Amino acid sequence: MRQPIFDGHNDLLLRLMMRCENASTQQVIDRCVSGATKGKPDGHIDLPRMLAGGFCGGLFAVFIPPPIGSLSFEKMGDNGYSIPMPPPIDYTDALPVAMTQIALLLQLIERSDGQMRLCTNKLAIQNCIDESVIAVVLHMEGAEAIDKDLQSLEVFHAAGLKSLGPVWSRNTVFADGVPLAFPTSPDIGGGLTEAGRRLIKACNQKRILVDLSHLNEAGFWQVANLSDAPLVATHSNAWTMCNSARNLTDKQLDAIRDSDGVVGMNLATCFIRSDGKMSGDTELRAFVEHIDYTMNRIGDTRVALGSDFDGAVIPNAIGDIGGLDALRAAFEQQGYDNELQQRLCFENWLNVLERTWGS
C-alpha cells in the first residue's frame, strides 16, 4: 500500500521568495502551482510533484535567509568543516521578509483549486489526507520576525502559525543556534535568553509546537526543563551515526522519547553520511540506517520524516518530492511492514501534533 507522506520541514517559501527578484508574484505562483512552464521548475517542490509523490502535507517553513554570499557551503564538501555564521538579523528587517513568505503561502493555497489547505489541528490534517488534499501547517524556522515583547507572535498565531523554532543556526535574541560544523558536538555556545524563556512559555500557552532542530545542546535542555509539551525536532538525525553539530545525541534522543515527542528524520546528506559531506551521491540506505538507529533508541512511534526539501542537498535516488516512491521502496527493502510505514510516513506526526496542540 502506498502510504501518504506528511513531512516535518521544507523551504519552498524561501525558494519562491528568491524567485520574486526576477518575476512578479503572479508569475511565481503560476509557475509553481499550475506547472504551466515546460519541464520541471527548479528546486524540489511544486504542486504537480507533490501530488505525483503522494505528499499529503507538512510543515512549510518561513525562513529569513542570510545575506547572499555570507555563507560558504562549499566547505561542507571538505573532510571536516566549521562554517562561520552570519550576524543576527534585526526584527525590523526580518518582519517584512516573513510577511512576504506567508503571503506567498496563502496565495499558493488560494490558487491551488482546493488542492491545498491551511490546517491548525489534527482533525483538519486527517480530513485532508482522507480527501487527497495537501495539508499545510505554517512553521517558522528561526524567530527573527518576532519581537522580544512577543507582540508579533500574537499576529502570526492568529494567521495560523502552529510550529516555531527559536533559532536557525545563527543566534537570535531568543537563543543561540547550533553551528554548521563537523565533526563536533552540539554542545556549543549558550542557551536561551530571558526573552527565549518567555517565548517557550508563550508557545506552550498558545499550543505552538517548539522545534528543537537548530538549538544547541544548552538550549535543548533548557526547553526540556521549561516546556510542558512533547519535545520535537522537525528535521534532525542521530549524532552517533553522523557527528554533525546539527544532529541529536543519544541523551537528547532519550529526552525526546521520555517526553513522548518525535524526531523528523532529515534527508540532507551532510547530516546522514558518516563523513559529513553534502553530496547527492548518497545511498538511501544510509538514511534508513538513521531511522533504524533512532527507532531502536526511542521507539517506532516517535520517528517521522523531516525532509528539508528545497533547503538542502538530498540523495539523488529521490531527486525531488515527486520521487518519494524511492523512499517507500527503501522502506520495503528494509522489511518495514505496512503498519510501520504508516507510522513513519504520517501517523507519528499527526499524533504528536495532537499531543502538542490538543484536539
Provide structural commentary:
- This protein has 359 residues and is an alpha/beta fold.
- It has a single domain (5-357), classed as Metal-dependent hydrolases (TIM Barrel), CATH 3.20.20.
- Helix content is 39%, strand content 13%.
- The strands form three sheets. Strands 1, 2, 4, 5, 6 and 8 form a six-stranded parallel sheet that branches. Strands 9-10-11 form a three-stranded parallel sheet.
- Helix 1 packs across helix 4.
- The longest helix has 20 residues, at 91-110.
- The protein is globular.
Query: Helical percent range?
Result: 25-40%
The H/E string reads EHHHEEHEHEHEEHEHEHEHEHH
CATH topology (level 3) name: TIM Barrel
Structural class from helices and strands?
alpha/beta
Secondary-structure map with pairings?
Elements: E1 5-10, H1 12-19, H2 25-34, H3 47-52, E2 55-63, E3 81-83, H4 91-110, E4 116-118, H5 122-131, E5 134-141, H6 151-158, E6 161-165, E7 180-182, H7 194-206, E8 209-210, H8 217-226, E9 232-233, H9 250-258, E10 262-265, H10 284-298, E11 303-305, H11 324-333, H12 338-357
Parallel strand pairs: 1-2, 2-5, 4-5, 5-6, 6-8, 9-10, 10-11
Antiparallel strand pairs: 3-7
Helix pairs in contact: 1-4
Throw out a few tags for this protein.
single chain, 359 residues, alpha/beta, TIM Barrel, six-stranded parallel beta sheet, three-stranded parallel beta sheet, globular
What's this, in brief?
The chain is an alpha/beta fold. The protein has twelve helices and eleven strands. Helices cover 39% and strands 13% of the residues.
